[in-house]
Design brief:
Length: 299
């Protein structure tokens, strides 16, 4: 093959993206946007293809889903997803947790209010062994006695580990789905572990472009319960804005404008295609990126 033909083939080759958590509410929309932009898309999750009724308004797979490779893998067991990172241009971590098991247990009546909340709001919990001291492919071992999936494990250590595995495969771009802020009803560790993940990833892997998306509450008409919550969030964000953001310390993510999940999905892919985007991406920039993506689609 001539050098000209080789260059032409390289120019038309699809870029590959691996979305860990791609069968989730936001992850599936990142996959959808990537397909629309011509990427070669692989989703990694423990269950493979989504249960479509849980992430869309229909139980049937949407047409674009046939262009996604729905792979099974465990974020705590890198050996299950390592091969899928080969030749990837971008890797996305969209697998954080909002509630820990003991907090859920209180809400569901499975654990006493006092013991559950005391544990949920403790100052610290165990994550895994130091993910940066693992051997390549070594599993993450939960440090809580009951093996609980804590914020430290899922929001921080699993993300650092995925970034490390991506760096080993010479992946150039890494996206971490973080959050705008915590919330009054959530333990502070929810947001502190996300910020710790951002800091560690950015400092430890400087050769990899890291992008940290910080959306607030995500909504979509397919999840009807999110609509009234988003409406209240919009009011809260407006009030916070009128005070110059001085209520953020009190309202947390409740003082940040809610975003439609599709908007964030489109913004993630637009950010990956814009080399100038790196580091934290807050709500205004998310909206700007999504607008650029929309205009691009109209051309």
């Amino acid at each position: 093959m001539s050098s000209t033909a080789t260059a032409a083939a390289a120019a038309t080759a699809k870029k590959k993206i691996v979305v860990c958590g791609g069968n989730g509410f936001l992850g599936s929309r990142i996959c959808k946007s990537a397909v629309a932009r011509g990427w070669d898309v692989t989703s990694v999750s423990r269950s493979g293809e989504p249960t479509w009724s849980s992430v869309t308004s229909s139980p049937d797979p949407p047409p674009w889903s046939k262009q996604v490779s729905w792979q099974k893998g465990d974020i705590l067991k890198p050996a299950t997803y390592q091969p899928l990172l080969q030749d990837a241009d971008a890797v996305v971590h969209s697998m954080g947790i909002l509630l820990e098991a003991d907090y859920k247990g209180v809400l569901q009546g499975k654990e006493s209010l006092v013991s559950g909340l005391r544990r949920a709001f403790s100052a610290s919990k165990g994550g895994s062994q130091n993910p940066l001291e693992r051997k390549p492919g070594e599993e993450l071992h939960p440090q809580e006695g009951d093996g609980q999936l804590t914020y430290e494990l899922m929001n921080r250590d699993s993300a650092i580990t995925l970034a490390q595995e991506a760096a080993h495969k010479n992946v150039r771009n890494f996206v971490y789905i973080s959050a705008a802020a915590g919330a009054p009803l959530l333990p502070a560790r929810y947001i502190t572990t996300k910020r710790e993940a951002e800091s560690t990833i950015g400092l430890t892997f400087p050769s990899m472009r890291s992008i940290f998306f910080r959306p607030g509450f995500l909504y979509d008409s397919s999840r009807s319960f999110t609509i009234p919550i988003a409406a209240m969030g919009t009011v809260g964000a407006t009030v916070n804005s009128l005070t110059g953001g001085r209520l953020t310390w009190l309202m947390g993510a409740g003082g940040t404008k809610p975003l439609q999940a599709d908007v964030v999905g489109e913004a993630v892919i637009e950010a990956l295609e814009d080399e100038n985007v790196r580091g934290p991406v807050e709500t205004p920039q998310i909206e700007e990126l999504a607008t650029k993506a929309w205009r691009r689609g109209m051309l």
